[in-house]
Amino acid sequence: MAYQLSITSGVDEGKTFVMTQKEAVIGRSPSADLILRDETVAWEHARLKDNGGRLYVENLAAVGTKVRGLRIKDETRLNHGDQIQLSDRCSVLVEQRMSYGGGKNRTTLLLLAAALVLIVLLAGGGIFALSSSESGPPPASAVHWRTAYQRLDERMQEWVEQGRFPREGLVMFRDGWRFENVGATPQAVERWDRLQSVMLSLHAPTLDGRVRNFPEVAGPDASTLSVIMGRTQPSADSTMDWNSDERYADALVWFVRMRAEQARRRAGS
To answer: Angle, nearest 10°, between helix axes 245-268 and 185-200?
Structure first.
């Protein structure tokens, strides 16, 4: 088995690295094995070690390194689907792959990975579509879901900067989305469920000033989410402020709830 590292956020998002040696250093140093350009990453940030097919990470940076949302102190075992968070802006997804050696065989491995991504993209409508139900919007396309994700991500980033939402919650949100996109369904379910639990204890922004958690702010259906994702348009006589923080809190609850349900169904199948 071999491990592939994929940069899932930051300046180098999309870059991949296949771990074929016993040790590898991640950082901005030209001598690093996985060289990153992101200035939030240290010169030599972390060291990876392959110990009998088990992958471990060791922090080398003063700013620290997080795995599964927790700052590591010692060498930490990595599992398939784990995220190595080098900074608030740069995360690395760990995936276990079949090892095909080097040279042409490594090219074969990358082509197989590309084919898998293509299959996921072609099935986008099926992966991201929702079945019609009384409590949700009509079926949404992959484009609608991505639009909703991007808008919610931007609003949540603002909340984090304002101290109104924990950064760990934003990381869970991003992780859940990325795990779904790479087919790591069990990990996606775990992130969405954890985020739902977190939102139960958070005060949501409200227009009337009442103290309520996020689920209490959410409406009886996902109509706000449908508007934010561009699936439906508000009625001409609507006086609702669709861009308010309260409406985005409503949409966030439904987004996470529905993504969790979809991921759970796929994991069960």
So the answer is: 140
